[in-house]
Amino acid sequence: MKGNPYTKTIDWDEYWAEADEGTREDTSPSADLVLEPFVEFLEAKLPNGPDAYADVGCGPRDLVFEVADCYPDATVVGYDSAEAVLEANRDRAREASRDLRFEQTVLPAFDPGPQFDVVTCLFTLCYVEDIEAALEALYDAVAPGGYLIIQYHNAFAQAHYSCIAESPDEYLGEDTTWSAETFADRFELVIEGETLLSYERIHDLLGTWPQSVFAVADGTDPYGANRYEPLVYVPK
Predict the structure, then answer these.
(1) What domains can be seen in the chain, in order of their start residue?
(2) pTM of the entire predicted model
(3) What is the pLDDT of residue 6?
């Protein structure tokens, strides 16, 4: 899985081209974990909705479609590195008669031109080797007064994932999302500590303290892995 142009660990074009429906759901957990608090966050912070929203590393996720449904006047764009998943999303949007755009971008590079009121990047940064450049590019795409929402891995995740990588058969059964055979390769950047973030590191890079999305979306309980993989927003 190494040596591809997108990340150090996974060739996402190949991955999504070969993925069945179960794999797509397992690799895109935001519908189960993030969608409800994200919608509650938007209602609290932007009661009239965003004028423009971007989801970077969108995969086959529901966030862009949910925002388009809730805010039909908003400009909604999904970005991903894999053309296979972008084309599938375009087909889905056409079938649903939704006015959505899906464009290719490969983090850490992200320069969409116009800025967005809200930019999300979920379950993606752990695969991007130059995570600092990616974070800065994402924040640059947020309009003044807007929000960057990210999910990231921290030092607790590194310790937990290292234990799994050392004894994958003890942690990963048939019903788990990840394969015991590929876990260590897939999360190599987390295990090596190359893609770890913290509140302090985000503040040092962006000059603004992140805050938990669940402090705003207090009607939703944090997902179980939030201690290892926090969901935060960074105001601009």
Answers:
(1) 12-235 (3.40.50.150)
(2) 0.91
(3) 43
